[in-house]
Amino acid sequence: IGERPNVRSVFLRKLYFLVAVQFFLATIVQYFAGDFESFRKFLDEQWIIALVAGCLLALLILLVYFLRSTFRRTPLNVITYVIFVLVLVYTIAYFSAGDLSYMVTTSLTILSLSLFAYALTTRLDLTFLGGTIYVLGAGLASYGIFLIGTDMPFFTLVWVTLLMVTLGFYLIYDTRFLIVGQSLNSDNEDPFISSIIIYLDIVFLVFRLLENLGKVFKRNRY
């Protein structure tokens, strides 16, 4: 719609890479929390830090969502992103629950890098058809890694993989329409800020699904 496709592809490359950095760091910190008892003990004892981090995380997402034009400015966008990553990683590490949370963050890292690779290979908009190979490939890769490297139950591996694949298709949709907007004008968006807003979009997705399910049940009832 009047915008050069390569501008959008550059925007999406930066966005997916920044999201991948978030989950990669979360995976690394979870590894240290699992292998170093002193670090795990510190996380468990300092629950007040996790509470503050969680509140700050939610506050940052809301502020960025409603005041995105303000937070787009440099260097505020970079500073906000760094603070967001720090509190996100700490919150994930505090609530991590063994192999399951480790698999989730690892799978999200692989998924983000896969979409980043897809954005590198095309100058056109990301499509569901083109992204299928990359999304399914990321799901199968994470499934295979944890099938071989862990003793997690089979059905746990399956539902986490299906969840990651579903999220991958939603990310393609979300970054094409919800973040960039119906005008598809990437020049008005900042990848640092968009990598934060995307979390609230996922929450909205859950509410929309619940709303649609409610309409279906109500229609069947009457």
Features:
mainly alpha, 9 helices
Structure description:
The protein has 222 residues and is mainly alpha-helical. It has 9 helices and no strands. The chain has helices at 5-35, 37-45, 47-66, 68-71, 76-95, 99-121, 128-149, 154-178, 191-221. 33% of the residues are buried. The model is unreliable at 178-187 (pLDDT under 50).
Q: In summary, what is this structure?
A:
The chain is mainly α and 222 residues long. It contains nine helices and no strands.
Quick one: how many beta strands?
Answer: 0
Q: Write down the overall mean pLDDT.
A: 81
Strand content: under 5%
User: Number of helix segments?
Assistant: 9
Radius of gyration equals: 18 Å
* Percentage of residues in helical conformation: over 70%
Largest sheet: none
Structural class by sheet pairing and helices? mainly alpha
In the predicted model, the low-confidence regions spanning at least 5 consecutive residues are: 178-187
Distance between the termini: 43 Å
Secondary-structure element string = HHHHHHHHH
Outline = globular
SSE diagram, text form:
Blueprint: H1 5-35, H2 37-45, H3 47-66, H4 68-71, H5 76-95, H6 99-121, H7 128-149, H8 154-178, H9 191-221
Helix pairs in contact: 1-2, 1-5, 1-6, 1-9, 3-5, 3-9, 5-9, 6-7, 6-8, 7-8, 8-9
